[in-house]
Amino acid sequence: MVVRIRLARFGRRHEPFYNIVVAQARSARDSKPLEVIGTYNPKPHKPTGLSDEEAKTARMYKAVALDQSRAKYWLGVGAQPSDGVWNLLAM
């Protein structure tokens, strides 16, 4: 039983949103995962709660939320990260 950590796409057309999931390697992209360990929003956006002056100079960022303890657990038991998740983990 090969387990992978990969991205499952959600959201609308032209507005992708991904869950970082642990799933069987041969299951479909959007099938029910074993566990959801994080989220990834690839559309750049500015931080909220800034003044007008700060908002003009603020850098855009892509939001990544990951439960690091669960990711370490799954990697420790042999789960293989996909290329996209590998890049996110390297950040």
Automatic annotation (TrEMBL):
Top-level taxonomic group: Eukaryota
GO molecular function: structural constituent of ribosome
Entry keywords, A to Z: Ribonucleoprotein, Ribosomal protein
This protein's GO CC annotations: mitochondrial small ribosomal subunit
InterPro entries reported in the protein's UniProt record: Ribosomal_bS16 (IPR000307), Ribosomal_bS16_CS (IPR020592), Ribosomal_bS16_dom_sf (IPR023803)
Pfam families cross-referenced by the UniProt entry: Ribosomal_S16
Coiled coil: none
One GO BP: mitochondrial translation
Keyword Thylakoid attributed: no
HAMAP family reported in the protein's UniProt record: Ribosomal_bS16 (MF_00385)
Protein family according to the UniProt entry: Belongs to the bacterial ribosomal protein bS16 family.
Name used for this protein in its record: Uncharacterized protein
The organism's taxonomic lineage, starting at the top: Eukaryota, Fungi, Dikarya, Ascomycota, Pezizomycotina
